[in-house]
Amino acid sequence: MNQQPPPIFKISDAGANVRTHDSSCGAVAEVPEQITVYKEASVTDTTFTYTPVALFIMQDRSGSMVTGFPPPASPQSWQNSTDAITAFVNDPMSKGVDIGLGTFPAGAQNTADCQAGSDCGNPVVPIASLPGNAQNMISAMMAQKPNSPLALTPTECGLRGMINACLNFHMSSPTGENCVAVLVTDGVPDQCDVNQTNLTQIIADGHAKGIDTYTLGLPGADLNVLNQYAQAGGTGMAIDVTGGAQAFISALNSIRVKVAHTDKHTVVTSHVIQTPLKCEWKIPPHQEGDPALDPQKVNLQYTPPNAPPLQFGHVAGVSACPATSNAWYFDDEKMPTQIFLCPNTCAAIETVMGARIDILLHCPRLEAPPA
Predict the structure, then answer these.
(1) pLDDT digits (tens, 9 = 90+) for 7-31
(2) Which of 265, 288, 304 is the last residue of a domain?
(3) Per the confidence metrics, is the pTM higher than 0.70?
């Protein structure tokens, strides 16, 4: 009695072990497509170290800051300014910030010299680092509280003074530390030069020398004018602080963030995206020299990741798909061009990443168990 030769194993084109009964049996591998996507990501590391940029606040101390006259000035403006500056210099996030204070009009430590502006630029609190300079700032705000209800607003003096204070600090700094000016006011100019073109030019000249100017508008200020000042000073728009002390604090915090030293670097990372395994395939085209396709000699082999291969059995069509076992079928049993997995089989494997399907040609077909 003749014995059937033992089955042999052969390596397919994709490197899988394929069981066959003759040397003409071949395999075509179907594997999920892998796509490598390169993503560019910007990573910003912000360090709350504010040197080498100092802040010089030029604070309006005209009578309207405590009288609220003329409306819409607020009698709370000086107290709100004091509370905001106190909160800012005591904030741990302000540690390391260099800060100073000037006031206008005439106070205990300066006079309204509108021609040169040098006296308004004489700091009430010289620029120094926080937290060491915090108490000096707080004490000065308390001492500089307006005591003359009739005091006017010599804005020219304040503008020249803050620009000069920043320029002097920059020139005397051993490291050439930059300085930004912060104008805080509740009114419009009514002393010294009141021509807005001339006043805006003072700020523009300072900006040309490297001094940026921020403007904060308290109740009673003309924000349209302060916007012109901010634009000339290179900071865009005025900051409305008519909402009280908290609005003032938020404004100072936003300036602190803008002048913070920020390091930014870009990294490119690759992400491999693997598509799900398909559930339908075209029958591979006939190759010259190969036997003609015999539907009775087509099989489907499934290889899950890190596991041995399994052969799925054939059924006559989707209506014959079994409920409890894996199977496949042709689009046309006599002249097939495509292979489909049964719905339950497809659902079971399509989410398995790293799996593969081998279409085995010229091998006796394995039929699925009856449903």
Answers:
(1) 322 223 333 333 333 435 666 666 5
(2) 265
(3) no
